[in-house]
Automatic annotation (TrEMBL):
GO terms for molecular function: ATP binding; hydrolase activity; RNA binding; RNA helicase activity. It catalyses: ATP + H2O = ADP + phosphate + H(+). Residues 292-465 form the Helicase C-terminal domain. It is an enzyme of class 3 (hydrolase). This is RNA helicase. GO terms for cellular component: catalytic step 2 spliceosome. One of its GO terms (biological process) is mRNA processing. It comes from Rhynchophorus ferrugineus (Red palm weevil). Residues 103-267 form the Helicase ATP-binding domain. Keywords: ATP-binding, Helicase, Hydrolase, mRNA processing, mRNA splicing, Nucleotide-binding. Its EC number is 3.6.4.13.
Length: 733
């Protein structure tokens, strides 16, 4: 049972003998919980209610010694008030004393593994050190990859600032659909996926003197593949310096992979972090987060809070709940600045998390996994960790890939906790029990390459001329069946011939930095004479979750506005409606505001890029807006795997594997229930939901994928909609 291990620090948990634990527990019970409650009762009902809700937390916060420990630390306000100059900040980073050693090590070795705790200055400083040491003297670049878009952008901005140059000149970044570099750029941050694509145009990375594969521990699919690619390049280009930089203890593994490359360790500097667990599992962790934030805010000394949530929607919910409660508390509490950060957040908003907190106030950052290692926010003293993250999972048996919220690993949990101890002793509140930490969390996160669809990666590798994927130099090889399935899918899409070689179509598909299915739909739009529409739809889908804005206090208005865009052909067409109406207002911001639409500027940027790529593969942009059948056929030509047919009870079954799936309630087709539908993606919450669906006719499948579907599999091709009068519960197939 979990009852004995609540609120014990992880280290203690491993070693404390039973008797000691019992004694400790008794101390806990006798501690000042009730005094605490009474003391603050005068502050008002709202507050007292919170205390009741979260009595376990109060207990944790009142843990004997924890208060004293905090007292001994320098007053946090002082830390905050002391604004360092850029130069002082640079000198204060743990990496700074090792500057010269590091430069020397790079000069002496071609490949170097760098290990240093998050926040030690690897990402921002190493490129600058190497630049200062002359590694860019000949005009060639230092490249640095990041698994996340936000990190690439914000780190580049920071380094440009430190160097006193304009972002996009000497220091720039490149991410998918956005290139903020110039001829003058010598330090270039980019996502790992972007470098992956750069190999297509520059297979030997000739324009770089140094390549840093950063955040290697994240083990994203692209980073994993880059390992194999850069290892190969290093053999041909003895002048290219290769740095693999990692925050955790995988360094040994990286070293072995890179022929025993030396490891350069930057000693960590970390303050202790007390870890607390909840007594019982939290049913609603977003709510628990809100309560914990307030709890910390009213009971704990100043110092900023970092909260880990799984995605934009959750962050928005949390933000609204929190702001609502803060409003009700009014001037009873100090100022609390609430700042979200997630991938789709506009970059000026993202930048706000780095602004210093004003004296006397506290900041709370609501972040996705992005803040686990990629971004370092100064002055974080408190971390709240609900223990979940969003991950893509691919089932190679059913060929289904689904985004789902999953428990994090112990390694992740400890990284998150570590974020609290950078500037002073910190506290991490885990919204799960010590028991589940110990028994339910995996030790390490499974690398992406072993759990996602490899279609994209395989297409890229084939385009690079790497034909024998089974013998590609993987750090950890993907499961054989996933690789085979990717090959099969690419074959069905027409990207590979039956020898597994890239076809002409496949080569054109590889030009697009999108999923192979999407690339195929883009190319198919030529035949169906609707490239204009498919380009728009693709752009909209690539920012999709962020388009419809749904503020808590205006949900009805927002939903009504959204419904006005609905197209009965399906959600792709609704998105097309949104874009075209916006275009017709001459891209009006006011229009977006009135219609609860956001992120359109990004959609427009993406769209422009896509138009450019279409020109590169010589597809004319032509419009065929009134022929939605053609538009839907073009989409089907790419997404014919993602097809489901209506089954009992308003559910659907996937066409090939008979898996149960359901239309997402947000869909325009949620109540329509067409017989055959195509979905863009699956999201698993309580069940497998299909997000973004269109109605199709089964006979189109034979037209667009005759080698994949047999008429018999699609025998019901009447294509009539089910009469609406038949309720979903009585419906039979
Ligand atoms: O890569 P690593 O985790 O070792 O550290 P880093 O990202 O280079 O961060 C070093 C310092 O730069 C931290 O103190 C960050 O707070 C600061 N930084 C910043 O102020 N703004 C950014 N956009 C990125 C980093
Ligand atoms: Mg870093």
């Amino acid at each position: 049972k979990n009852s004995t291990s609540d609120y014990i620090e992880v280290d203690e948990l491993e070693k404390a003998p039973q008797s000691e634990q019992k004694k400790w527990e008794k101390d806990q019970m006798a501690s000042a919980v009730f005094k605490f409650g009474a003391k603050d009762a005068s502050k008002g009902d709202e507050y007292e209610l919170l205390l009741e809700d979260q009595i376990d937390f109060i207990q944790a916060l009142q843990m004997p010694g924890s208060k004293d420990k905090l007292k001994k630390e320098p007053e946090l306000t002082e830390v905050e008030m002391k604004k360092l100059t850029i130069e002082e900040t640079k000198r204060s980073l743990p990496i700074f004393p090792f500057r010269d050693d590091l430069i020397q090590a790079v000069q002496e070795h071609q490949v170097l593994i760098i290990e240093g705790e998050t926040g030690s200055g690897k990402t921002t400083q190493i490129p600058q050190y190497l630049h200062e040491a002359g590694f860019t003297a000949d005009g060639k670049k230092i490249g640095c990859t990041q698994p996340r878009r936000v990190a690439a952008m914000s780190v580049a901005a920071r380094v440009a600032q430190e160097m006193g140059v304009k972002l996009g000149n000497e220091v720039g970044y490149a991410i998918r659909f956005e290139d903020c570099t110039s001829e003058r750029t010598i330090i270039k941050y980019m996502t790992d996926g972007t470098l992956h694509r750069e190999f297509l145009s520059e297979p030997d990375l000739q324009s770089y003197n140094v390549m840093i594969i950063d955040e290697a521990h994240e083990r994203t699919l692209h980073t994993d593949i880059l390992f194999g690619l850069v290892k190969d390049i290093a053999r041909f280009r003895p002048d290219l310096k290769l740095l693999i930089s990692s925050a955790t203890l995988d360094a040994q593994k990286f070293s072995e992979f890179f022929d025993d490359a030396p490891i350069f360790r930057i000693p960590g500097r970390r303050f202790p972090v007390d870890i607390y667990y909840t007594k019982a599992p939290e049913a609603d962790y977003v709510d628990a987060c809100v309560i914990s934030i307030l709890q910390i805010h009213v009971t704990q000394p100043l110092g900023d809070i970092l909260v880990f949530l799984t995605g934009q929607e959750e962050i928005e919910t949390c933000q609204e709940l929190l702001q609502d409660r803060l409003r009700r508390l009014g001037s009873k509490v100090k100022e609390l600045i609430v700042l979200p950060v997630y991938a789709n957040l506009p970059s000026d908003m993202q930048a706000k998390i780095f602004d210093p907190t004003p004296p006397g106030a506290r900041k709370v950052v609501l972040a996705t996994n992005i803040a686990e290692t990629s971004l370092t926010i100064d002055n974080i003293i408190y971390v709240i960790d609900p223990g979940f993250a969003k991950q893509n999972h691919f089932n190679s048996r059913t060929g289904m890939e689904s985004l789902m919220v999953v428990p994090i690993s112990k390694a992740s949990a400890n990284q998150r906790a570590g974020r609290a101890g950078r500037v002073a002793a910190g506290k991490c509140f885990r919204l799960y029990t010590a028991w589940s930490y110990k028994h339910e969390l995996e030790d390490n996160t499974v690398p992406e390459i072993q759990r996602i669809n490899l279609g994209n990666a395989v297409l890229m590798l084939k385009a690079l001329g790497i034909n024998d994927l089974v013998h590609f130099d993987f750090l950890d090889p993907p499961p054989h069946e996933t690789l085979v399935l990717a090959l099969e899918q690419l074959y069905a899409l027409g990207a590979l011939n039956h020898h597994g070689e890239l076809t002409k179509l496949g080569r054109r598909m590889a030009e697009f930095p999108v999923d192979p299915m999407m690339a195929k739909a883009l190319l198919a739009s030529e035949k169906y004479k609707c490239s204009e529409e498919i380009v728009t739809i693709t752009a909209m889908l690539s920012v999709n979750s962020a388009i419809f804005y749904r503020p808590k206090d205006k949900i009805i208005h927002a939903d009504t506005a959204r419904k006005n865009f609905n197209h009965l052909g399906g959600d792709h067409l609704s998105l097309l409606n949104v874009y075209n109406q916006w275009r017709d207002t001459d891209y009006s911001t006011q229009w977006c505001y009135e219609n609860f639409i956001q992120s359109m500027k990004r959609a427009r940027d993406v769209r422009e890029q896509l138009v450019g790529l279409m020109q590169r593969v010589e597809i004319e942009i032509v419009s065929n807006i009134n022929e939605t059948v053609n538009i839907r056929k073009a989409i089907t030509a790419g997404y014919f795997y993602h097809v489901a047919r209506l089954s009992k009870g308003g559910n659907y079954k996937t066409a090939k594997h008979n898996q149960t799936v359901t239309i997402h309630p947000n869909s325009a087709l949620f109540e329509e229930l067409p017989r055959w539908i195509l979905y863009h993606e699956l999201v698993f919450t309580t069940k497998e939901f299909m997000r973004q669906v269109i109605e199709i006719e089964s006979k189109w499948l034979l037209e667009v994928a005759p080698h994949y579907y047999k008429p018999k599999e699609l025998e019901d091709s009447t294509n009539k909609k089910m009469p609406k009068t038949i309720g979903r519960t009585t419906m039979t197939d």
